[in-house]
Amino acid sequence: MPIVYQSREYTTDVLVIGCGMGGARATLRAHELGADVILVEKAAIGRAGPMTYVHTQYAPPRLIEGSELYDWIEEMVLSSNYIVDQDAVKMLVHDAYYRMQELIDLGLPFARNADGNLEYFVLRGHKVGTCLAADGRACMDRLHHVMRQKPDRLRIVEKVQVLDLLTSDAALPTNGRVVGAVGVNTQTGAPCVFKAKQVIFNTGPIYPKMHYCFADHCTGEGHAMAYRAGARMTGMEFLTFCGWGIFNKPGEREKKFATGGQAKLQKIGHFINARGERFMDKYDPVWGEQTGLVPMARGIISENLEGRGPCYLDMRQATDEQLAHLYAAVPSTGRSFKEFGLDPHRDLLELNPVVTIGSQSSGGIEVDLEHHESTTVKGLYAVGYCSHNPHMMSGISVPITTWSNIGGYRAGEAAARQAPELPSPVVDSGQVRAALDAFFSPTRRVRQVRPGQVWAQIQALTADPPFALFKTEKRILETRDKLLALGQEMLAQVYAPDIHELVKVNEAKCYIQTAALACEAMAARRESRGELFRIDYPYMDNDNWLKWVLLQRTGAQMTPAVTFRDLPVADWPVKIARGKIPVAYPVPDRFKEREAAA
Amino acid sequence: MIERIDLELCDGCNLCVESCPTDVLKMMEVGNSWGEQTWKATIAYPNDCHNCRLCAIDCHVDAITVTHGITLPQPLFAYTKEVLNEDVTAKV
């Protein structure tokens, strides 16, 4: 006998899924233009996603125009390994001024100097681009407050995980349009059905629950839902997360702490190997120790591989003033040092690098910037981390919050303007039932594989050093197959006793689907660029690879069709040198020997 | 990770449960020695704590202790000197 679901139904014009900067801006803009809006969030507003740790937002101090604009675009092109949509960057620089001014007017707590003026400062790795500092959580609290002041036509639904999109033809992938979404309350398990004319995704980045970056709940549900609905994905090959800001407790190596403020640590400390040599100049002759996260992590790993590890952050020369500045900017780092009995003047801090499949800069749902962040699926928009960000930042400095701010505003505006002309959404009850049945099925199993075990498997696969560090076509495809097998076998056996574990199962399912897509795109891009490094193609190829890799689901199968789109570089202001540029990345001799023997 | 919640201080306001992004905390009915029943926050899923400290920041009676020592998922942090020199070269 089939289960009867008592779903709570909501009907609205615009449904915003996920609330970071982009979700809040989309909600406020759509509401301002007269639309009825529902904002749904898996966690709580201001307590979710990267906005809980964001400290800076890209902000030009004035409207950037004329010859100055060229400089602002050029530095982004250079720091993005050339693969950047220059029209998008132009829009970013232009719109950033207005959108940030609006946030300032809304009363977001940006840092000011003693005279009460806003304190603009230049970003790491930039010559001209400036930003403003503010605690992301306090920013979201302010935006939440603003939203709460609008009781009519704006409803906020927290603690609801959205499972799948609902479509007019009741099919995934769809030939019709998105008409809403189905979700489940993460506290009570109560199903919710949202009927909406327009849906905006702001579902954030993707990480494999690594207890780092404060984003274990961001597991790529937006990426996976959009892909299942037939949206085209772009830049997925750059979904590689590299980090190094994890330190051991002296004497207790299993006890670790992760720190933010890595740019600041890079400024005041040196990076040395076990022999006491400073090694970063070898791996990045241009930026040295001021390089981005990706080359930094690779440098540390290479030293470890070649037997000169472990590597340390050496802050013994730092002045008291520098340390005071660090602790003021990133208070948790100071607290961690104290808790662990670490004195930066005395101790070396051992570095723990990590490389896995996750969001560092870009890669996600393709959006049409000429049509206000709309995706290839009708009625679906994407903003922020879950969307494809046409500026690939490689961890040097990430204007993603401002990009999300701009995208949210534009998507909210377009969604609200079109909503009156669209028909009332009609939801197919069979589609709702199918999504809920799939979600709840792990409660009815006997074989006991727990969600935690699935996640451990995911972590082992995606951070497996031969795959993460030395990518070749064979290894990338192997990892994809293993991930898909994990998805089929383990998820078919997984048992979840309560709603908390059910949510983790759905997160694992979405992560696996997104990570498999990332592998697909990594195998398709036959060069090394930015986050993607392949030892079978150890060069950046500007002759053949100034193009995006596009992935789209074509039928009932989950396998994507892979296509390419050239960047119209000839039409853009910043010219890019052609040719192949070697990417310095030492592969240890021992590894090469084994590879040759195999 | 989240170490403990001081039940003497916790007044059952539910703020930490609301603010936890990874759903680590739950409210639970507990009894005291006088036989009264009250609601207190408890750590239901400690392994899912990702150390963001939002619960401790939001707690208005300062009842929550979060320490920086977290046990990170082992497979993800395998690029230490020892592992890379022994396991990896054996694996590849």
Structure description:
The complex is a heterodimer of chains A (598) and B (92). In chain A, 36% of the residues lie in helices and 18% in strands. Chain A is an alpha+beta fold and 598 residues long. In chain A, helix 1 (21-32) packs parallel to helix 4 (136-148) and helix 9 (320-329) packs across helix 10. The longest helix of chain A has 26 residues, at 499-524. Chain B is an alpha+beta fold. Chain B has a single domain (2-91), classed as 2-Layer Sandwich (Alpha-Beta Plaits). A two-stranded antiparallel ribbon of chain B has the order 1-4. Chain B has a two-stranded antiparallel ribbon with strand order 2-3. In chain B, strand 2 and strand 3 form a beta hairpin. The radius of gyration of chain B is 18 Å and the shape is elongated. Chain B starts with a strand and ends with a helix.
Task: Lay out the secondary structure.
The complex is a heterodimer of chains A (598) and B (92).
Chain A: E1 8-17, H1 21-32, E2 37-40, E3 56-58, H2 66-79, H3 86-105, E4 121-122, E5 130-133, H4 136-148, E6 154-157, E7 160-167, E8 178-185, E9 191-201, H5 221-228, E10 233-234, E11 241-243, E12 246-249, E13 252-258, H6 262-268, E14 270-272, H7 280-283, H8 293-305, E15 312-314, H9 320-329, H10 331-339, E16 348-350, E17 354-356, E18 364-365, E19 380-382, H11 400-418, H12 429-440, H13 451-462, H14 465-469, H15 473-493, H16 499-524, E20 539-541, E21 547-553, E22 560-566, E23 580-582, H17 589-597
Parallel strand pairs in A: 1-2, 1-9, 2-6, 9-19
Antiparallel strand pairs in A: 3-5, 4-5, 7-8, 8-9, 10-18, 10-21, 11-17, 12-13, 14-15, 15-16, 20-23, 21-22
Chain B: E1 2-5, H1 15-19, E2 25-31, E3 37-43, H2 54-58, E4 64-66, H3 81-91
Antiparallel strand pairs in B: 1-4, 2-3
